[in-house]
Design a protein that fits this description.
The protein starts with a helix and ends in a 13-residue tail after the last helix. The chain is built from three helices and no strands. With about 90 residues, the protein is mostly helical.
Length: about 90
């Protein structure tokens, strides 16, 4: 089942917005969305949109974490300097 074009366009807008957020900001936005979803106040008609918005924040957080993980993996454990053999 494919998403409607308007939702796909909205997701792209959310991705662009999320790209400018720090990990902490994106995590806070995700937490707010999750709280809203758990409160049962989201109308059923808007549920898919809110879930998709949360997925954008989650993807951004995971991307930032992977980036930091790659940077840490390239550090020499003894000197904590970047290694040259990547």
């Amino acid at each position: 089942m494919s998403q409607p074009t308007d939702l796909q366009a909205q997701i792209e807008t959310w991705r662009e917005d999320a790209a400018g957020l720090s990990y902490e900001e994106a995590l806070q936005a995700l937490d707010l969305l999750l709280t809203e979803l758990q409160s049962d106040t989201v109308p059923l008609a808007e549920l898919q949109q809110r879930v998709a918005h949360g997925e954008v924040y989650l993807d951004h957080c995971e991307s930032l974490l992977k980036s930091v993980e790659r940077a840490v993996d390239t550090l020499d454990p003894d000197s904590l300097e970047p290694t040259t053999d990547a």
